[in-house]
Design a protein that fits this description.
homodimer, alpha/beta, Enolase-like, domain 1, three-stranded antiparallel beta sheet
Chain lengths: 444, 444
Amino acid sequence: MRDDITILRFEVIDLRFPTSDTLDGSDAMHPDPDYSAAYVRIVTDHPTLEGRGFTFTIGRGTDLCVAAIKLLEPLVAGRTLRALRRDMREFWRTLTSDSQLRWVGPEKGVVHLATAAVVNGIWDILAKEAGLPLWKYLCSLSPEEIVAAIDFRYITDALTEAEALEMLHAQSAEKLARMRAIEGRGYPAYTTSCGWLGYSDDKIRALCRESIADGFNHFKVKVGADLDDDVRRLRIVREEIGPSRKLMIDANQRWDVEQAISWTRALASFDLWWIEEPTSPDDVLGHAAIARAVAPIGVATGEQCQNRVIFKQLLQAKAIEFCQIDACRLGGVNEVLAVLLLARKFGVRVCPHAGGVGLCELVNHLVHFEYCCVTGSEEGRVCEFVDHLHEHFEAPCIVRGGRYQSPTMPGYSSDIKDASLRAFSYPNGSAWQARKANREGVHV
Amino acid sequence: MRDDITILRFEVIDLRFPTSDTLDGSDAMHPDPDYSAAYVRIVTDHPTLEGRGFTFTIGRGTDLCVAAIKLLEPLVAGRTLRALRRDMREFWRTLTSDSQLRWVGPEKGVVHLATAAVVNGIWDILAKEAGLPLWKYLCSLSPEEIVAAIDFRYITDALTEAEALEMLHAQSAEKLARMRAIEGRGYPAYTTSCGWLGYSDDKIRALCRESIADGFNHFKVKVGADLDDDVRRLRIVREEIGPSRKLMIDANQRWDVEQAISWTRALASFDLWWIEEPTSPDDVLGHAAIARAVAPIGVATGEQCQNRVIFKQLLQAKAIEFCQIDACRLGGVNEVLAVLLLARKFGVRVCPHAGGVGLCELVNHLVHFEYCCVTGSEEGRVCEFVDHLHEHFEAPCIVRGGRYQSPTMPGYSSDIKDASLRAFSYPNGSAWQARKANREGVHV
């Protein structure tokens, strides 16, 4: 048995899938996404053990994240896994506090997305070394070890280290029983697949029926481009799903505050559970004003909320009823842990953002951990599921009967198949070269 | 005379000055800055007219901004100056709303800093074409034209287009008289040069006396590393400047909220005018809590506040008494205009951040415009001045008698000398090559 393992270097890949060709996943603000990942292989001196991490992007700009990950490499290379395990907080802070790089953040945008990729890759390798899927690895840590991974800087006015520790200790006794329970039944998922803009009546009805047959009880519809069209699609969906299933809407930041209020009110008769991303992800006070005005419809946001400081304020201001963490927008697992505990303290439900490429794989671990160690409840909680691009993963998430099944393979489910890495690396992968040749052929 | 001018392409330069060698400008969070600029030359089909824009950075990460500027090039190349003048709002929104790039922002961090460089370069060329320094070019625009450059998305709950127009119209009658007045006397500056961490007593006293002799009446001291040392330096500065001159402190985001309150109170006996950057630039509610607790000391922040949405909230929450816009952190002139008008509406004084490389050159235009067209007052307003790296500019700012003198050369004062561009381009410029050779020599 080896004494310790040392990180040698990064191999970083600009990975893009040409999803804009089919317009899967387009919304009011992002009409032509190429689902992408800035993907990092963390190479060690061990013959087989390698960390894999990524941040999700949608095309242009992936190269910026790739370059930022490379800038973080010198802060990671040479570290041993033992030293990392011993001080995950210091490690995280080293990445987010680089004295020069922080100027172009700090803790937001490109550099923070890059931090997420690296941090996720480190947790992947630690879990793999332990032979556990990430959620079980997190469950294997003591409350003290969890708290020691969190940077409490800028959040102590809302959550102290002592409070976090107390919350985790209070849940410890139930942990093992919950792990057994969730492995049996999984965690509730919801689907966005029926509700994209631009679908015909027939397509919406067919997708709703399919999703109901698949066991889903929560349905999300994209809104905000045209009120009449929103009414049309919501009427169809509500007819199909009946009065008892939950219906949510998602505006993808389309509105200003006043418009968000009036538009949401205009749709309220469809018995909406939440309005997601009604306005700018930076607008804490705006979300709070909307929340007051549209209650009892809850406000949900998070997929573009840049860090724990924004989530802290959303919670302090009672601006959200649903906390939509993103596994890559936040600075990886360490910062997700901070937000899970903040949400728990404020009594707000976490319903992670997923979709894109790989986000479903990641958040499945996070909700499993949260259930076992933080909340012990799935009451009113659902985790987003979009059925895209899972085929590229070595351990794709499995959703059955409307529920995420528990991950079993060691690591953070972030291993993308070698063939996919080769085909979709941008711009020289075989899929992109073939597409280019094809287009040039068409234009001749 | 030419009919119109078309933008052809960008030439982007990674420009870094090795200021970490001397530790000029180091603070509690940024101990070793290499003052830098992602610098763009906007090349046109005109034989001599070229736009120059930049964003300020401090070393690592400049390359990310350079790459982001290049990603914006296709959104700008091919546009004519006439078309730009006709719809500056649409132009700005095109840059900030790119459907794929916005994912790695939106409107924050690397991509927003890059937007600033490009947008500043466009205003530079428009002012040059008009034969006016930028501030006079802005003054030459009608209230309607100013408002037409502003993207009101996400701020209409605080400031509508109609309100902005009314505010500008109300100032119009005084504009010409103010332009004449400010050209005679300039605009008040303050100095940070006496107050860096780590200076000896004698050095502090000498610098204070120098600054008083130079006509300064406002003095800023860096704090937050060590309370005893802060007391020592503040006592010296207050002794030197006497009871009537203003004394400010700057914590560079060092504290959590509670600590900011207790530390500031511990220094309050030195009669402080403002506490700058007490905590995370993202923490609107935190700044508001600090403001309530430390009054009558005012809270100041802004140099790392990412966009108009954050400033809007700082104003709505009464979190700041001094609004420290940054000419490059905000998305260039268009977004600065939005924040100037927001601040005016909320009755908050704008005291721009400057220093680094080139920021003094830029903000001088902004305070000149603000005085002439927005406020008509310099009461309680000061613009930061740091005496660094001005020698590299074709039209360096001039501060005399503690006041910024009015820029006279056409454009936005963003032209850096060709020799400096060559010497300090990173990593192959002659200054960097010489430094490398020198270091290698030392190590042999």
